[in-house]
Amino acid sequence: SGILPNPRKVQLGLATPGTVAPPHPPLPSSSTPSSAGPMRNGAAGFQRVKRGWVWNQFFVLEEYMGSDPQYVGKLHTDLDKGDSAVKYTLSGDGAGSIFTIDQTTGDIHALRSLDREEKPYYTLRAQAVDINTNRPLEPESEFVIKVQDINDNEPKFLEGPYTASVPEMSPVGTYVTQVTATDADDPTYGNSARVVYSILHGQPYFSVDPKTGVIKTALPNMDREVKEQYQVLIQAKDMGGQLGGLAGTTTVNITLSDVNDNPPRFSKIPESSAVGSAVGRIKAHDLDIGKNAEVEYTIVPGDGGAMFDITTNEHNQEGIIILKRPLDYETKKAYTFKVDASNAHLDPRFQSFGAFKDTATVKINVLDVDEPPVFNKPSYVMDVYEDTPAGTIIGAVTAQDLDASSSPVRYSIDWKSDLDSYFDIDPVEGTISTNELLDRESIAQHNISIVATKLSNPVLTSRVAVTVHVLDINEFPPELASPYETFVCENAKVGQVIQTFGAKDQDLPSAGQQFSFKSLKEDGKNKNFTIRDFGNNTAGIVTKRSGFRRRLQEIYFLPVVIEDNGYPPKSSTGTLTIRVCGCESDGSLLTCSAEAIFLPVGLSTGALIAILLCIIILLVIVVLYVGLRRQKKKETLMSSKEDIRDNVIHYDDEGGGEEDTHAFDMGTLRNPKVVKENMFRRDVKPEMKRSPRPPVSQDSADIRDFINQRLKEHDVDNSAPPYDSLATYAYEGDGSVAESLSSIDSLAVDHEEDYDYLNDWGPRFKTLAGIFGEQSETQSDSTTTENTH
């Protein structure tokens, strides 16, 4: 037997023990060179059976979340011929509870999810036995199922939070402390346990080594007197810091320990002291007691008289110096003045001993305090045209440190005021530039905040507001304000302004737009008209000659160039159409029609209107006359004595349908009991009066017999369709109460019938009544003529 290619498969074979080397480090095994085999030829005892194991390590994925049991691997022996005579058994760690084996196929499955951190591997034993006798076919052997790790544990700082200290004024790279994070994932498999350190908060003062977690100083000359405590946030991320890795954090509290970096100095008054605050104390000693020891302090007018004031503390007789005005170290660094101390209650008996007061000189030194940078303007306003290329500088801001140290200043844009990053700023120069194309139609004004930071002390910052107006670029050329209808009189004079016109522009804002008008250069030789620009966004068409005649030319075209004052300037060419018209002597328009040229010269406008009215009246009279003639001359539909049954009469009169109950009494057709006797047919002229038909009962025997006969015919007819069908019977029953509605059985008679009753049926039968009425008159006339002859 040989090694199977499936690394998840263990094969039990008949090879000599020891001839197959395991592909992985040797695992604990209880296999022996010999085993008890089956009895042969009925002889009692054990037969040596050669066997061989292919040791392949089994793997199962931890935290498996599938719905079906997870497939682990397959066991197989060479004695298994596929006839289901071999049964596989499994024992050891988790056998039956965690792992199960198919006794016939040898497939191993994991029944539940496993955690590598809880147990990294399981040692099990497998054996192949005879399914009938349950006797071992081969000795029991041991194998291992290893839980394959996934990244399901984040790094943890078991000793955090950390506390450390470092001397102030330490150079860059001074060791502070080391942090360590542990990851419970398998360090020998993938990058699940490979941890990388980074600093989230604490820059630029400290740095951390990404591999070792050693924290060092990153900024020189950190002064304890400025800031003593620092809090640093360290992150440890597995998967080598790649995207998708799990992370843990810890806090490191770092204290700057003091070093002797400051000489002894007398106290100074900070320049940031508030007005009205106490800046110093002095005391004059008096050997008396009680009210005799009360002292009054006054400042001698001079250098510091305007900046300071002094009061007496009634409890201990100290003089308290109070600040009256703000201090500015950059303006004056020290103040010197004198203070007099005298008794409040004097005894005249001892005044001869001399002045009861003493004088002391007081010097106050002003301490320079780091102040934020100061902008040279309280706010800035900048303009930029839309669609300006990215990177174009639109302005600059300037801030400076007024302290004696004069620290450099760095500029930045507050990201909250420019979320879409439309602008960028040079951190050193303070120049503001566009970061992308601006659109005035989207945002017409941007309000951003510029931050100036003191380089020597980044905590000190100041802000200034910058307003950026996006100016509308000249996108649209100007055009004529409207389609002008211009005319020139035939009697126009030279230099006469015949039309004033203007222009419009779609660019905004419309206020402040300026337009200029001029003629085309190619049209400079125009001898008829010219353009005169009035300078107020309007221009006029001026005639250059007189004597315009419609007979010679009726229409003139005058091109005009219109240009605006936008950036960049745009222009367009419009065309004005000028018609030659006849005018009165005062310039009022008569007509511009070319046909009017051929009218008699003496006709005025009133005469032309009178002629048109006469023509219209004549046309109306002719129309009325023709209409009357047609009404009197109606043609008879029946011009011969033909039977009306052979004629089809068409008339455009639509009845009202079933709901029209006014034209005809439909009850006559529906209710046989309301039939009137002696009612004749109305669709034909009867030749003779018919005797009234007796009413027929609804249960007519002849109709019933006819229908039964036809039903029998259809039942025996082989050509009839084998399905229900509609059979039409062209049979008119006798004794219809409503009488016949067709002319099949109508009798032709020559007796006249009066059709005036059709007029009583309503307007829908008006046409029909007219037709039969004319026919009755015609037949009456014919009868009269025959009788005359």
From TrEMBL:
Keywords carried by this UniProt record: Calcium, Cell adhesion, Cell junction, Cell membrane, Glycoprotein, Membrane, Metal-binding, Repeat, Signal, Transmembrane, Transmembrane helix
Provenance organism: Sphaeramia orbicularis
Region (Disordered): 1-42
Broad class of where this protein is predominantly found: other
An MF annotation (GO) of this entry: cadherin binding
Cleaved signal peptide residues: none
Domain Cadherin: residue ranges: 77-157, 158-266, 261-375, 376-480, 480-598
Compartmental location: Cell junction, Adherens junction; Cell membrane
Membrane topology, record value: Single-pass type I membrane protein
Pfam families: CADH_Y-type_LIR (PF01049), Cadherin (PF00028)
The organism's taxonomic lineage, starting at the top: Eukaryota, Metazoa, Chordata, Craniata, Vertebrata
SMART domains: CA
Any one GO CC term of the record: adherens junction
InterPro entries, alphabetized: Cadherin, Cadherin-like_dom, Cadherin-like_sf, Cadherin_CS, Cadherin_Y-type_LIR, Catenin-bd_sf
One of the GO BP terms on file: calcium-dependent cell-cell adhesion via plasma membrane cell adhesion molecules
Ranges annotated as biased composition (Low complexity): 29-38
Function, in words: Cadherins are calcium-dependent cell adhesion proteins.
Protein name, as recorded: Cadherin-12
